[in-house]
Amino acid sequence: MAGPFAEVSIFxxxxxxxxYAIPSELNAGARPGARVLVPLGRRSATGLILAxxxxxxxxxxxxxxxxxxxxxxxxxxxxxxxLIALCRWLASYYFYPVGEVLQTALPSGATNAxxxxxxxxxxxxxxxxxxxxxxxxxxxxxxxxxxxxLEAACGSPRGFRQKLRELENRGLVERCHEWRCGLPGPKTxxxxxxxxxxDPGPIEHNANLKSLVALLRGADAGIPLxxxxxxVRNADYWxxxxxxxxxxxxxxxxxxxxFRLAQALPEAPPPRLTPxxxxxxxxxxxxxxxxxxxxxxxxxxxxxxxxxxxxRLVEETLKRGRGALVLVPEIGLSTQLEAxxxxxxxxxxxxxxxxxxEGARHDQWRDILAGRRTVVLGARSAVFMPVRDPGLIVVDExxxxxxxxxxxxxxxxxxxxxxxxxxxxxxxxxxSATPSLQTIHQSRLERYRPLLLPRRILDRPLPTLEIVxxxxxxxxxxxxSHRLRTALAETLQAGDQALLFLNRRGFxxxxxxxxxxxxxxxxxxxxxxxxxxxxxxxxxxxxGKEEAVPERCPxxxxxxxxxxxxxxERVEEEVRRELPDARIVRIDRDTVSRPxxxxxxxxxxxSGRANVLIGTQMVGKGHDFxxxxxxxxxxxxxxxxxxxxxxxxxxxxxxxxxxGRAGRGEQPGRVILQTYNQFHYTLEAVLxxxxxxxxxxxxxxxxxxxxxxxxxxxxxxxxxxxxxxxxEAARRLAALCRETAERFDASGRPAAVLGPSPAPLLKLxxxxxxxxxxxxxxxxxxxxxxxxxxxxxxxxxxxxxxxLAVDRDPMMSM
Length: 814
Ligand SMILES: Nc1ncnc2c1ncn2[C@@H]1O[C@H](COP(=O)(O)OP(=O)(O)OP(=O)(O)O)[C@@H](O)[C@H]1O
Ligand SMILES: [Zn+2]
Description:
Layout: E1 5-10, E2 18-21, E3 35-40, E4 43-53, E5 71-72, H1 81-93, H2 98-105, E6 115-120, H3 122-126, H4 129-132, H5 134-142, E7 145-146, H6 147-153, H7 160-169, E8 173-178, E9 187-194, H8 200-205, H9 207-216, E10 223-224, H10 225-231, H11 235-244, E11 248-255, H12 275-284, E12 294-300, H13 306-319, E13 323-327, H14 331-345, E14 349-352, H15 358-369, E15 375-378, E16 390-395, H16 413-424, E17 427-432, H17 437-444, E18 449-453, E19 464-469, H18 482-493, E20 497-501, E21 510-513, E22 530-532, E23 537-539, E24 546-547, E25 561-564, H19 568-578, E26 584-587, H20 595-607, E27 612-615, E28 628-633, H21 647-659, E29 670-675, H22 681-687, H23 691-705, E30 712-720, H24 723-746, E31 751-764, E32 767-776, H25 779-794, H26 797-800, E33 803-808
Parallel strand pairs: 12-17, 12-18, 13-15, 13-16, 14-15, 16-17, 19-29, 20-27, 20-28, 26-27, 28-29
Antiparallel strand pairs: 1-2, 1-4, 3-4, 3-5, 6-7, 6-8, 9-10, 9-11, 21-25, 22-23, 23-24, 30-32, 30-33, 31-32
Bound molecules: adenosine-5'-triphosphate and zinc ion.
Zinc ion binds next to loops.
EC number: 5.6.2.4
Binding site for Zn(2+) 2: 522, 525, 540, 543
GO molecular function: 3'-5' DNA helicase activity; ATP binding; ATP hydrolysis activity; DNA binding; zinc ion binding
């Protein structure tokens, strides 16, 4: 069979890619990265061309004839070659169908089935009779139109299909697949514009007309019709009159859907780089023009000016005519950065995170693809943005756990960024004040080049840290210790600001029965319900389910329920009682449900309208508030309780980041840590602000225990609605893993199997969860091991009845 051929990935959970013949009339458009319509069984399906070849696939029997591609749906590829390669890598590394990886990489809607559009043929364009026909007239006016839309727009939908078919038979109209990227097209608005001088007489006589003309004068670009209608009484009547006289025109204009978080930033010219910053800049900049691939670890203490270095490097990349990608952990952090980046890069910037409305996202994605926007600032999935000719990737706060997606494609965006940079042959900068141990390890092996910013800007001192042993506090001071209360009062007295940090929202962490000891639990998840006092409601923080507080204990029937433990809402109440004059803002997922709320709260702190900021991890990192001089950590132990080998690492990172919010301006900072574990090694490291020493100790113990980064972990997660079925499937899976491990052991490639065990969160959203852990010494071994197990699992009926997810490099053992 003669070529060319295309390897196509269907947008579905299909394990394998498929091959199709490329008919000669589609040859030019059928390029890798373009979406196509292909036959699949008796249906058609949509997918994307991953590669072209002149020979059929080698394992194909010669008598098989490949079916042809039906249609190419894009004028130009929507995925760049490096992104195609990245998706293939992710599919293989995370054991996930490539077609579904593509769905993650493309904006929502882009993998939907294409719409059928109707348009005039060249003959139809010319023939005057189409002008008189209802359908023809609509098509003349609107251009190609979706079939459904056309039908709806026709005044007489009856007989529509019949009439359309007649026009088709006569060669005046045709159907086509129009994808419009599968995305809603650009948004259009109607604007009104003055097209000539209106007759002065009538203007004098009518106030409405007078105000209409006044509005339109001086607005050369036109005024949106909606505004005119709002401002002028009887606007439609007067517009019709003026339009008939030829003095105004109403026209449609494409409107860009922008999205801007209006954090007020003082206008300031870029500062001169400090010698430390300059040194970092000089180390990276030679790589910006043409690579090669080089990872850098930018290890800079809190407040050392990493952001400025990123912006200078991005600017330099743009000067070389290339694009740049900057990843940040989540919207809480990117709002402030967004304002800074927008100030510096203006219209060249695209912002990509979950807080950006869908329409604006699609506009930006199209702009990025077309090369109209060359700097992308975004959260996790921004790693998939089709930036033109990228010359630099930055991953800010690279240690942040939110870079790991915890469902579906469980990828780590930092690792994906590294792979993409390698595929492109460009530098990648991993920045943090507390780099992940994995990154520290790589830099010690000289695989990543370390770059250091050991001092704060202007040699401002790092904050001083103190510990309060909560075991010695009276029960009245359970939330705010005596020391923290006093310090808080002094800080506000001095006109400064304070930050109180607690990694738990809500009022009380649970409701307990004083008679039988039962804890009120979510009916869908195996966790206790959190009490929210303002709403007087119990809420599950995992599935969102809400319940009223029962009068009696559901277990024993006695009326003895009381709240226990505390969250940020309770801290707020406590501060209000202690310091009635404090101006408090609380930032957590209960008070901030939209990005606008967050911006408003952050603005309140920046402007000084608020002087006490209470929050969860949303406020713990990244923010630069110069007037915060006191940081109080209400409970330094919360993160230690996670059943995860990284609990120590996470705790130190979190606490050092929070501590780093203090004393960033002219006044030095003070940090008070409340704890019940004052001699824990993690707290000792935080107290000394000595991250490297912590890394030494932690890496040594990980090496002894053979934990990452010295070994590789993978978690199989088995879930179903039946507890017994889940347990049984997990048991069989573990047996399968142990058999496989024995064979691997025999060939000198050891792998260890742990479990099966119920997940710490045994039930989540009505599904029971068990897991099996696998540990191997090399990535290659883990890959082969998992492939072997998965292919065995596919032929086990007990395992086919449950859902089996693979989580490679798992984070929390949730
Ligand atoms: N060269 C410079 N001269 C003067 N001020 C600077 C300079 N570079 C940065 N700054 C200022 O220093 C402050 C701290 O910088 P930045 O927020 O970038 O720190 P960071 O390293 O990102 O800290 P963190 O890790 O805590 O987020 C900011 O207010 C910034 O405007
Ligand atoms: Zn729940």
